[in-house]
Fold:
Amino acid sequence: MPTQREPGLKKRIEDIKNRINDAARKCQRDGSSVRLVAAAKTMSVETVREAIENGIDIIGENYIQEARQKHDALKNTPASWHFIGHLQSNKAKYAVRIFDLIHSVDSVKLAAELDKEAKKIGKTQKILVQVNIDGQSSKSGISPENILSAIREMALFKQISIRGLMTMPPFFDDPDRARPFFSALSRLKETVAADNIDGVCMEELSMGMTGDFQAAIQEGATLVRVGTAIFGKRK
Ligand SMILES: *Cc1c(COP(=O)(O)O)cnc(C)c1O
Structure:
């Protein structure tokens, strides 16, 4: 008996884009206000190349070493590279060379390091600040109570540009349980925006993954980070 073939990458990319558009339309948003970041950790250069050829224009990476290899092999493609994993300060010098946006800045110390390294190469590094939205897990991110003071400090660094917030809520396989965390991040973004800090532009909300991106879009996500629904299960 022939086994059911998995749909190809091209088809999965079309599907996910349609699902993003549908989710946006359902809450009277324009589909173009949500950008898709293809979370490509563990995927090969060839797979990422195929994704780019089939309409992916933002690649999300979690590990610097892996990202350097892929970026090097694919730097002549039109894709933009985003960092979405935990970044150690001592890797900041590589990060500023590769990434247009770093989603996961989780300390003033890391922001300081990015500022220093961006200055060396004459770049203004766009960043998002990662929020530990449930405040109690051991995950990375700045707690909601400390976010304003942290952003006020980061805003003093001239070579970084703060563009918004990112989070990874718990329960990301159950969209309805993740939803309150998405709406909390959205409100936090408004709180920061209302503080009118010089050099801070609260335009992006990076939230939502394969299991919960529709809920995230309804709560205001502008960047969704999707891996499994594009590339299939990771080994
Ligand atoms: C892997 C990863 C994703 C994508 O997860 P999927 O469930 O495979 O869509 C999103 N965000 C971050 C930070 C990740 O590490």
